[in-house]
Write a structure and sequence with these properties.
single chain; about 350 residues; alpha/beta; Rossmann fold; Dihydrodipicolinate Reductase, domain 2; 2 domains; seven-stranded mixed beta sheet; 16 strands; about 30% strand; globular; NAD(P)-bd_dom_sf; Saccharopine dehydrogenase
Length: about 350
């Protein structure tokens, strides 16, 4: 069966990478790029802030919309639900995800609506389930992120940090919501793949909400470190003395907006059950954009190849965890290790 797939934000870094991987793995799919500069061939002119531009989605008989650009007002989500078009969103920070999920639940669902905004395209929550066969047995999940300023990075993550670095967010202790801030509450963590011991700080990703509120895991935390120990220390110092509170949004964007020529991306999941700890370490040698895009493609392929009912999903709910793990392992630039 022929599929018409539209990547909105397809001219951005992650969008372009999704299209490249999707074309290489699914040569028979018709893939359209949606963006403000569209208007020729498979490049459609779509502005997420202007719903009047969405009619072209229906005209091209799009089966699935992949959203890789921030749509703060959820115009695309409203449109696809009204027109019963499948939808995969990889873009939303936690507050926007909660808002969109609430909106989707309030409407009749005539297609597959998939939220995939967790870390690296929403694969963490599926990988958690490979470490314990029963989610009910999991007492705690800790996610540790290694972020390189030399990695290729799109604008959205930098903008999120600039807008939210001075605001509190929520982690969970015994199902209690604990307000915390980025770059505080440091601890040491020994990363795999030759990184070694690093100081890690609070970090907000949607997995906090998903693992606690959806998967009912009582204790969830996320901490991160930069490849530069000095930058990691400096950001912590800025937060402690409230420098971020007095900087303008433009100045904060300058701090978080750097993008290099490419570097590895690493995250580590530690799951605690009554039987002890299990750990999964993942390295993407081509960086976070490649891994995020691959995750979006794996979710897309799952929607195309399997008969998931019309419903609202978080992306990990589409997969059998063991199969997701095997697909990631099979990709050339990904290395995965499991340990106690």
């Amino acid at each position: 069966m022929e599929h018409n797939i539209l990547v909105v934000g397809g001219n951005g870094l992650v969008g372009q990478t999704i299209i490249r991987i999707l074309k290489s793995r699914n040569p028979h799919a018709n893939i359209f790029t949606g963006g403000r500069k569209g208007g020729t061939d498979n490049h459609l002119k779509i502005d997420v802030t202007d719903p009047a531009t969405f009619q072209i989605i229906k005209e091209n008989k799009i089966d699935l919309v992949i959203l890789s650009v921030n749509d703060k007002e959820d115009h695309i989500l409203r449109f696809v639900m009204e027109n019963k078009i499948d939808y995969l969103d990889i873009t939303k920070p936690t507050p926007d995800l909660v808002k969109a999920y609430t909106l989707a639940k309030s409407r009749e669902t005539g297609s597959r609506i998939v939220f995939s905004s967790g870390w690296m395209g929403g694969i963490v929550n599926g990988l958690v389930k490979t470490l314990s066969s029963r989610t009910a047995d999991i007492q705690e999940v800790k996610l540790f992120v290694y972020y390189s300023v030399k990695d290729l990075a799109g604008e959205s993550s930098a903008h999120f940090m600039a807008e939210n670095v001075a605001k509190p967010f929520i982690r969970y202790e015994n199902n209690r919501q604990i307000p915390v801030k980025h770059f505080l509450d440091s601890e040491d963590f020994d990363f795999s793949f030759g990184i070694g011991k690093r100081e890690v700080y609070n970090f907000d990703v949607p997995d906090l909400y998903i693992l606690n509120q959806i998967e009912k895991i009582p204790n969830v935390s996320v901490k991160m470190t930069y490849n530069s120990k000095f930058i990691t220390w400096l950001l912590g110092a800025f937060q402690k003395v409230r420098i971020f509170n007095i900087l303008s949004l433009k100045e904060r964007k300058m701090i978080f907006g750097s993008s290099g020529n490419g570097d590895q991306s690493i995250f580590e999941i530690v799951v605690k059950t009554k039987d002890g700890n299990e750990r999964l370490s993942l390295q993407s040698t081509k960086g976070q954009a490649e891994l995020t895009a691959l995750s979006a493609v794996l979710h897309t392929e799952e929607l195309l190849m399997n008969s998931h009912e019309n419903n609202i999903y978080f992306s990990h709910q589409l997969h059998q965890p063991s199969l997701l793990l095997e697909k990631l392992k099979a990709y050339g630039s990904i290395n995965i290790k499991r340990s106690k």
